[in-house]
Specification:
The chain contains 3 helices and 36 strands. The protein starts with a strand and ends in a 5-residue tail after the last strand. Helices cover 4% and strands 24% of the residues. Strands 20-27-24-25-21-26 form a 6-stranded mixed beta sheet. It is mainly beta and 616 residues long.
């Protein structure tokens, strides 16, 4: 049991980590390794392979350091006497821990290039069942057991040195700052529930130079690379992606442990299409009159380590007054430093309302932009959500059960493989215990139940949106600090233009330097997301950043949302100008946006957000 808590400094970093006494006695394990469900275990190993990952645990400590509910590169975890002592505690059946990737000798910590993770800053995913603002405050009769995968890693692997010729991936454009001018909103033509008409916003000054050619809009998603099946742990490798499964005779199952295992006759393996990046119609504009969809929503706590890598952005709200004192302290400091990022727009609530989309909506393949597979992330997209009655009708204003609609921003992924009950799509979800919702499972358009059907998303198909606790509390009580009785609620939703307050911000992750840095782009108005981020090098050349490459291709729905400098690029000198392109191919330029590699305020070292001064 844990008997002491002390503050330590690891590898010379100034980042504070929570450290605890090591558990004992230990049981030696071999890697790769995975554990699911309830238990209190103490293990020992000499290798952590390539990375560790966990979700829905109450404790996950390695050599006394907490790595709770987060994806972490093993190269950032220091061994003690050549060993790793792991303490695992879980109180729910859907908890999970894994050691996976390439396994071999003791992992060697990367010093200098890899920002040390911290349990106290906004970087660390903390989906813990012990916090007052997590899912455990919810006495549910219909338990929302969406297992949440803390995805991605912000580590900078490889050597960042000034070497040879730079190879930059992605689209490179030469552009000047553009002026945004509102035009008449066009009539919406629905495709997959989203308008595909020309942009609501137009460019009054065209980019200069010659943009890179647009990829063939008719191309298809490339095959996924061959991988070793061990990357899937206890999931099933199919078409080189990890696929979830459940027992066809047990409506509450999310694996096949109770029906003979993966090879059992009652074990249903979900289509690989549900575990790849989804092929949805590319969205280049969103109007206020998009069509409504019916769905249902679960919730999963108040962690701020979502796959989009937004950190405290979107999580903190000036309306939040109760909950975990440490979390409230962090949000108070964040909101004081960046007041625009905590203000709600007029007429709706937004801040604190964040959620996770199904994995094949979070990660998508668009033929119109560079990339062979998962080349678009829906991070930042906005939705209006209304709580309905079980039959799909609305509550009248003033009626018992009525709450105002909310506006929600996507900040995380709900991967199908880990969440077969909710996040695999129409005709594949296994949420059949929700029998009294008109649209509980399955969703319109009605499809024959065929979990193994190899099909892409159907235009008009509804998606499941997993809610953070503030959003769920607002939909159940109308109050960000309210209680939550139900674990899953019937909803209707539609995509809306993001009504954010203030300019585009970038979060400069710690460890930034002339040859490596990672950014998160947040607070994007209108479409909410971006498809290209460029930084101007010391040479004057514009370099396209790439999405963080540190993930396995077999689990594309867990891709981390940071934008990083490609290997070999640079040097970059302060100040650095940035250029952003949204899905409508509108381009804005923030001249001299980054003026320092780190915040001058040491207390904000892990939450260094910069107001770029520009907005779409």
């Amino acid at each position: 049991m844990i008997i002491t808590i002390l503050l330590v400094i690891l590898l010379g970093s100034a980042n504070a980590l929570f450290s605890a006494a090591l558990c004992s006695p230990t049981t030696v394990i071999t890697v790769p390794f995975a554990q699911d469900g309830v238990g209190d275990f103490c293990w020992e190993t000499t290798s952590l392979c390539t990375y560790i990952n966990s979700w829905n645990l109450t404790t996950l400590e390695i050599n006394g350091i907490s790595y709770l509910n987060t994806y972490t590169a093993s190269s950032t975890i220091a061994p003690v006497n050549g060993k790793y002592v792991i303490h695992y505690v879980c109180t729910v059946s859907w908890g999970h821990f894994e050691i996976t990737g390439t396994c071999g000798a003791v992992s060697t910590p990367t010093v200098g290039l890899t920002p040390t993770r911290t349990a106290t800053g906004g970087l660390t995913p903390t989906r813990t069942a012990t916090s007052a603002v997590t899912a455990t405050r919810t006495p549910t009769t219909r338990t929302a057991t969406a297992t949440r995968t803390a995805t991605g890693t912000r580590t900078a692997t490889g050597t960042r040195t000034a070497t040879g010729t730079r190879t930059a991936t992605g689209t490179t454009q030469t552009a000047t700052t553009v002026t945004r001018t509102a035009t008449t909103t066009p009539t919406s033509t629905s495709s997959g529930g989203i308008s595909t008409t020309p942009p609501v916003w137009t460019q009054t000054k065209a980019p200069t130079g010659t943009p890179s050619p647009t990829p063939d809009p008719n191309r298809t998603q490339a095959p996924y690379p061959v991988v070793d099946a061990t990357v899937c742990i206890d999931w099933v490798l199919k078409d080189n992606v990890c696929c979830g499964r459940y027992c066809s005779n047990i409506n509450t199952s999310e694996n096949c442990d109770s029906c003979g295992g993966n090879g059992g006759t009652l074990c249903t393996v979900i289509s690989s299409k549900a575990s790849k990046s989804g092929v949805w119609p590319p969205v280049t504009t969103v109007s206020a009159s998009e069509p409504w969809h019916f769905s249902r929503s679960t919730h999963y706590g108040m962690g701020y380590g979502g796959a989009c890598a937004f950190g405290l952005y979107g999580v903190c709200s000036s309306a939040l007054k109760s909950g975990d004192p440490r979390f409230l302290e962090q949000c108070t400091a964040f909101c004081q430093a960046y007041p625009d990022l905590c203000k709600d727009p007029a007429g709706t609530t937004l801040r604190g309302n964040w959620g996770a989309a199904p994995g094949n909506y979070y990660s998508q393949f668009w033929p119109s932009i560079p990339g062979e597979r998962d080349n678009y992330l829906s991070c930042g997209e906005c939705f209006e959500i209304v709580r309905t009655k079980k039959d799909g009708t609305d509550y009248a204003v003033g009626e018992v059960g009525y709450t105002p609609p909310i506006t929600l921003q996507l900040a995380d992924s709900c991967p199908c493989a880990a969440n077969t009950k909710w996040c695999c799509g129409t005709g594949r979800d296994h949420c059949y215990e929700v029998s009294d919702f008109k649209y509980g499972c399955q969703l319109p358009p009605a499809l024959a139940l065929d979990p193994a059907a190899e099909r892409d998303p159907i235009p008009g198909e509804s998606i499941h949106i997993d809610l953070a606790d503030i959003a769920m509390a607002r939909l159940q009580t109308g109050d960000a600090n309210g209680g939550m009785v139900d674990g899953v609620i019937p909803t209707r939703y539609k995509r809306v233009p993001c009504p954010v307050v203030g300019n585009v911000f970038v979060w400069v992750h710690s460890g930034a330097s002339a040859y490596w840095f990672a950014l998160s782009v947040v607070n994007v108005k209108g479409l909410g997301s971006v498809i290209n981020v460029e930084a101007q090098a010391a040479s004057g050349e514009w370099v396209s950043l790439v999405r963080d490459p540190n993930y396995t291709s077999a689990r594309p729905q867990e891709r981390y949302g940071t934008w990083v400098i490609p290997q070999g690029a640079g040097p970059f000198t302060i100040p650095i100008s940035l250029r952003f392109t949204d899905p409508a191919r509108s381009v804005i330029t923030a001249t001299g946006a980054i003026t320092a590699w780190a915040s001058a305020d040491a207390t904000m070292a892990e939450t260094y957000f910069i107001d770029t001064g520009v907005q779409f």
